[in-house]
Amino acid sequence: SLDFDLVVVGSGFFGLTIAERAASDGHRVIVIDRRDHIGGNAYSHRDPDTGIEVHNYGAHLFHTSNRTVWEYVNRFTSFTSYQHRVHTNHHGVVYPLPINLGTINQFFASAHSPEEARRLIAEQASEFTIADARNLEEKAIALIGRPLYEAFIRDYTAKQWQTDPTELPAEVISRLPVRYTYDSRYFNDAFEGLPVDGYTAWIERMADHPLIEVRLGTDFFDESQPINKAAVVGTLPVVYTGPVDRYFDYAAGPLGWRTLDFTSEVVPVPDFQGTPVMNYADADVPYTRIHEFRHFHPEREEYPKDRTIIMREYSRFAEADDEPYYPVNTPDDRSKLLQYREMQASQPDVLFGGRLGTYQYLDMHMAIGSALTQYANKVAPMLSGSPSA
Ligand code: FDA
Questions:
Q1: Average pLDDT score over residue span 200-227
Q2: What is the pLDDT of residue 173?
Q3: Mean pLDDT across the chain
Q4: So what's the pLDDT on residue 323?
Q5: Is residue 40 in contact with ligand 1, taking CB distance under 6 Å?
Q6: What phi and psi values does residue 255 have, to the nearest 5 degrees?
Q7: Chain mean position to CA 70
């Protein structure tokens, strides 16, 4: 027999938050993950040569305005005072992002006041209206005008999507924030920082409970493993954070995702780019950005003074075996998702959660916040009849 009250599929922030809450309510939880490490996409490791913390699945910056989430995560880690800022290289000149008064004045070689800049951008944006925009390009021009669009958005977006912006739907962008101040902070949230001892230490502390067992390298669809879909669904409550289309054997067809490719390199210089993230706005550079991990932790004195690690990021549509990163979310995808949601009604003991289980981009604080709510509203009631309740 299975000596557990709850099965959690996936050890990312959604799954681990559910597991931690259930265990602290006295329930025995098994967490399985097909990867050989916990933490989902937030996992990071110390590079063995340099000791620099590398985020394996792309840069992860923690930020939230949700006080409940902030207090919850602070039980497992403290945070540094890191504030995220991003720059972009366009035609060999570096500008601050998101587009702000500094970007505008540098780009137009001007000294506009906030009001003057507002008027200039409004005039440049009048070429299209948001309501009439037929594609991403027209919508972006309606929001920020053609000159800024062509410099900072057009080619970068084409690289992200491997698609010309005139062929992307207008809905891909809802807004393009322009700040009419020199504030270049990337996030406006009340709380921001990076985990002092790194992401993996934080994640391991969430899983470190006598009632939680973690089994890595274990795929929920592998029937040679004791914990698999056929064996447990209907027997035990399940929280499933893998891809929703995979759960139903792609019965309504595969959902579209974008994936990223990363290439890392140790460079024998103390500092490669002087900042954590440099975007490359132009079409002639094939990658979208370069991350330099030492800059996420300027407080770490143990980092080497003579070497640094950089990681180039490339973006493309995901094939069957690629890691799914961002939902493409075409109208076709949305209609498949509705069919999968209907199929979920036949699985009353299974909660579909997290970014793969709901086919939604979720920041870490959103995945954690959603797990806290879903635990209270859905999982705790499912567990109330379990032996250890
Ligand atoms: P997550 O994907 O982390 O975990 C799901 C787990 O399920 C995985 O470990 C997977 O192996 C496992 N799994 C899937 N199928 C399985 C199966 N059949 N059997 C067993 N296990 C299975 N957020 C933020 O706040 N700030 C940021 O800067 C970033 N940056 C960022 C960059 C990139 C490139 C991405 C893709 C994402 C971010 N995020 C982010 C978002 C962050 O990664 C996200 O919020 C969390 O990963 C969500 O956690 P989940 O638990 O939902 O999924």
A1: 97
A2: 85
A3: 95
A4: 87
A5: yes
A6: -80, 145
A7: 17
Is the shortest distance between the CB of 14 and ligand 1 below 6 Å? yes
**21, 84, 241: residue to mutate for ligand 1 pocket, most atoms within 8 A of CB:** 241
pLDDT higher than threshold 90 for residue 385: no
Nearest residue (CA) to ligand 1, atom 53: 12
The stretch 10-37 carries a mean pLDDT of: 98
Expressed in angstroms and rounded, the spacing between residue 188 Cα and the centre of ligand 1 is 23
Distance CA 349, CA 235 (A): 8
Average pLDDT over residues 17-40: 97
- Confidence at residue 1, expressed as pLDDT on a 0 to 100 scale: 52
Q: Ligand 1 atom 31: the closest Cα is on which residue?
A: 60
Pick the range with the lowest mean pLDDT from 64-73, 199-208, 215-224, 311-320: 311-320
Nearest to 12 by CA among 23, 22, 24, 20: 20
Mean pLDDT for the stretch of residues 31-44: 97
Confidence of residue 341 (pLDDT cuts 50, 70, 90): very high
Q: What is the pLDDT of residue 176?
A: 87
The pick from 11, 31, 60, 160 for probing ligand 1's pocket by mutation, whose C-beta has the most ligand atoms within 8 angstroms, reads 60
